[in-house]
Design a protein that fits this description.
alpha/beta
């Protein structure tokens, strides 16, 4: 029996509280209608337009986001450093050094 196909819902660049609230409001319906296997969100600007905080990351994950990607604003808020080391579903940019906080991939 072949493996079932995977479907990915990728939401690009949530910006600030408005972007976060919009996603949180729409995500349950998107999950129901599209039935994605995996939901990925770019969250590098979700905290006031720059960076991400542990509280916001937890909120996104609790709402059904499976993985969060980051970008060049990943480390704008220092409180995220230790959190990135603890979580395996938040991905730092691939072109960042392996010695920087976080992981370069998740499964």
């Amino acid at each position: 029996m072949p493996d079932a196909p995977a479907t990915i819902l990728f939401v690009g660049d949530l910006v600030g509280g408005l972007g976060r609230r919009t996603l949180l409001g729409l995500l349950p319906g998107l999950r129901e209608r599209l039935d994605p296997t995996f939901v990925v969100v770019n969250g590098e600007n979700v905290a006031g337009g720059l960076g991400i905080t542990p509280k916001i990351a937890d909120e996104l994950i609790a709402a059904g986001v499976d993985a969060i990607t980051l970008g060049n604003h990943a480390y704008y808020r220092r409180e995220i450093f230790g959190y990135l080391e603890e979580r395996d579903n938040i991905v730092r940019p691939a072109n960042y050094l392996q010695t920087q906080p976080g992981r370069g991939f998740c499964v």
